[in-house]
Amino acid sequence: MPKSLKDLLYKVSLLATSGSMDAEITNLTIDSRRVGPGSLFVAVRGTVADGHTFIDTAIEQGATAILCEELPANRADQVAYIQVQHSARALGLIAANFYEQPSQRLKLVGVTGTNGKTSVATLLFRLFRSLGYRCGLLSTVQNQIDDQVIPTTHTTPDVVTINELLIRMLETGCTHVFMEVSSHAVVQERIAGLTFAGGIFTNITHDHLDFHGTFDNYIKAKKGFFDLLPLTAFALTNVDDKRGLVMLQNTVARKESYSLQTLATFKGKVLADSLFGLNMQIDDREVWFKLIGRFNAYNLLAVYGAAVLLGEEAEDVLTQLSGLTPPPGRFEQVISETNVVGIVDYAHTPDALQNVLETIDGLRHGDEAGQRPRVITVVGCGGNRDAAKRPIMAEIACKLSDRVILTSDNPRNEDPMAILEQMQTGIPPVDFKKTLTIEDRRDAIRQAVLLARPHDIILVAGKGHETYQEINGVKYDFDDREVLREAFANAGNQ
Ligand SMILES: CC(=O)N[C@H]1[C@@H](OP(=O)(O)OP(=O)(O)OC[C@H]2O[C@@H](n3ccc(=O)[nH]c3=O)[C@H](O)[C@@H]2O)O[C@H](CO)[C@@H](O)[C@@H]1O[C@H](C)C(=O)N[C@@H](C)C(=O)N[C@H](CCC(=O)O)C(=O)O
Ligand SMILES: Nc1ncnc2c1ncn2[C@@H]1O[C@H](COP(=O)(O)OP(=O)(O)OP(=O)(O)O)[C@@H](O)[C@H]1O
Ligand SMILES: N[C@H](CCC[C@H](N)C(=O)O)C(=O)O
Ligand SMILES: [Mg+2]
């Protein structure tokens, strides 16, 4: 969909321009490696590199126009230049203009929070499909255009990709799109220029301080999403979270809430919680759900509230919601022949790990002989991510498990043993005896299986749905669920 530069710059505040604003643009990119004739290259200052240093390369590759914060001293005659205050923010508006505002032509709902984004977005997507709508999904696990699955590398893609996907969703007849909004995405303006019909806040706990610096900045990043919601949108928050109300402080959107503890627009109560599911009372109706754990009661309530705010009948919503299963890698169970219960879960933050282990603790019962199943936890922390959570996660694992095996997650560009040593500093001395460190994740899972007795529970935390392990820039095939199944089979347990 070619457009003139002038059309693309609608609503963008310009500091200066040079060259023809009638030039025709056929492609929009922030990556010089993807530039060709007809491209508008947008120079964005990143965390590793500065896009401005690639302007010459972009021109060598045939760029038609350059948008930047600082105009280069030497300019090429045939190229149009646009100077703006903030390239990444301008890019959001330009991407929306390029694709003709797809977000305004469907109902786009964003979910933010430390934990629960994928769960809530995926449940909403599945719910609305079961209610008969064509839908889109942008999530950590995958993007989806109705039943077409598109692999993803980010929780929230860059703003050009988002608009590109939204237009494809529209063309496929989608009416609703559910997306995760990561804090990185808010800060890096990956959601700039999008018009949301609603925003949902799940919770906020420790994560990503490597990127945001302080917890306050992290809160501000999440809040930034609600600050940019329009008047027509709803802003649905979890008021049981300490920061739930702060999120809505400056939003102009309609303020709505959900809670398991206090007065709220959508009020729920957990009546029973077992390894088979949740029994809840929601707005005077009693319902069984297939999801496990109190944290999922919050996710279900958020989904229910959003669906009602989007105009659906409460009764229909609860009926469909009660049939839904958890998203992949979220409390996914793999059970051995001798009834060792393997649980693969994407808990990769202290809060998530604590929630999952507390859920497991609440669900384990003694066998006929009165012996309580033991909990064996296999966990690691990702490289090139928040290092402060490493000792905390090891400590939580020790506190709530009978045996702990510390292992690698995605080491990325870090030395796996160095990450493990940082985790080890969190092990309370009384727990040294119950803790092992096994760098190789497959060996760690195998060891957990060897330690397990019938009815014991093995939690493999941190990688959930991931089907790879990223080591030094290479993604090797690795799937906790498969490795666990193989280990059960090899140990003669299956
Ligand atoms: C730390 C971070 O968020 N990085 C994201 C960021 O990259 P960056 O700022 O480091 O970019 P950079 O490498 O410094 O490059 C700056 C600019 O130069 C351009 N460039 C670079 C090289 C070149 O040859 N030519 C060129 O034009 C780049 O395209 C970029 O526009 O902008 C890029 C483009 O949008 C993202 O792909 C990249 O995600 C990296 C891969 C990443 O790992 N991000 C993670 C931390 C992330 O975003 N995670 C959140 C989820 C977190 C959660 O809630 O759990 C997510 O939304 O996925
Ligand atoms: N509402 C919740 N509160 C606390 N913990 C949760 C909640 N929902 C899920 N979890 C835990 O957090 C893990 C990650 O859940 P989910 O993938 O839904 O979160 P996310 O916010 O999408 O994470 P990411 O930041 O990686 O995208 C789950 O496997 C579960 O252990
Ligand atoms: N969206 C999160 C995922 C973390 C998953 C964990 N397995 C890890 O690699 O640290 C991130 O990019 O930080
Ligand atoms: Mg996610």
Automatic annotation (TrEMBL):
Signal sequence region: none
Gene Ontology biological process terms, A to Z: cell division; cell wall organization; peptidoglycan biosynthetic process; regulation of cell shape
Chain positions of motif Meso-diaminopimelate recognition motif: 409-412
Domain Mur ligase C-terminal: 329-464
Gene Ontology molecular function: ATP binding; magnesium ion binding; UDP-N-acetylmuramoylalanyl-D-glutamate-2,6-diaminopimelate ligase activity
InterPro entries, sorted: Mur-like_cat_sf (IPR036565), Mur_ligase_C (IPR004101), Mur_ligase_C_dom_sf (IPR036615), Mur_ligase_cen (IPR013221), Mur_ligase_N (IPR000713), MurE/MurF_N (IPR035911), UDP-N-AcMur-Glu-dNH2Pim_ligase (IPR005761)
Residue ranges constituting the Mur ligase central domain according to the UniProt record: 111-307
GO cellular component: cytoplasm
Biological pathway: Cell wall biogenesis; peptidoglycan biosynthesis
EC number(s) reported in the record: 6.3.2.13
Residues given in the record as meso-2,6-diaminopimelate binding sites: R385, D409, N410, P411, R412, G462, E466
Key word ATP-binding present: yes
Catalysed transformations (reactions): UDP-N-acetyl-alpha-D-muramoyl-L-alanyl-D-glutamate + meso-2,6-diaminopimelate + ATP = UDP-N-acetyl-alpha-D-muramoyl-L-alanyl-gamma-D-glutamyl-meso-2,6-diaminopimelate + ADP + phosphate + H(+)
Post-translational modifications: Carboxylation is probably crucial for Mg(2+) binding and, consequently, for the gamma-phosphate positioning of ATP.
Keyword Magnesium included in the entry's annotation: yes
Residues binding UDP-N-acetyl-alpha-D-muramoyl-L-alanyl-D-glutamate, per UniProt: S32, T155, T156, S182, Q188, R190
Chief localization: cytoplasm
Key words, A-Z: ATP-binding, Cell cycle, Cell division, Cell shape, Cell wall biogenesis/degradation, Cytoplasm, Ligase, Magnesium, Nucleotide-binding, Peptidoglycan synthesis
Cofactor: Mg(2+)
Biological role stated in the UniProt entry: Catalyzes the addition of meso-diaminopimelic acid to the nucleotide precursor UDP-N-acetylmuramoyl-L-alanyl-D-glutamate (UMAG) in the biosynthesis of bacterial cell-wall peptidoglycan.
Protein name as annotated: UDP-N-acetylmuramoyl-L-alanyl-D-glutamate--2,6-diaminopimelate ligase
